[in-house]
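Async update (no meeting this week)

Hi team, since we skipped the sync, here's where things stand on the single-chain job. The sequence we agreed to prioritize is pasted below, unchanged from the tracker. I ran it this morning and attached the output directly underneath so nobody has to dig for it. Comments welcome in thread, and please keep replies under the output.
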Amino acid sequence: MQLTHYNTTFKKKSHPIVLVCDHISNAPNIGSLFRTADAFGIEKIIFIGGPIPTGRKMTKTSRSTEKVVPYEIRENIEETVQILKSSGYEIISLEITDNSRPLSSSKFHKHPLALIVGDENFGVSNEGLNLSDSVIHIDMFGQNSSMNVVQATSIALYEITKQLM
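Output:
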């Protein structure tokens, strides 16, 4: 018998992870990021770059998780990252760069961390990359060198939370 969210035996668990969304503006992606953050027990989401779109397109994909996942909206990534660093967070960007390392060979520890994910078209900003303690990427085996921000975030959070358990 297929289980539903009413009869699963999953235990609620939270992880010391803040998801920093660097200028993500697509309403369905934002809704899906709320849902992903809830599924992985993320501490909170910080949206950089102004108001996030609300309404039916966002709430349809969030499935009401925007009501339970804490979030903040901030204008400035530099200030946000400095606040997180001063609070003891390791800053990790999810982006393909000339010095990024594969997610599959990355090790994550129990200290709090902030995962920066980037804009749907341009990725993590240079400011975000420059302020990061490390940059990780997902190995790609096809023609394309990127994937949707929600799928990439889900893959990264799966690996990170798996190691933190």
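Quick observations from my side:
The first strand starts at residue 15 and ends at 22.
The mean pLDDT is 92.
Reply here if anything looks off.
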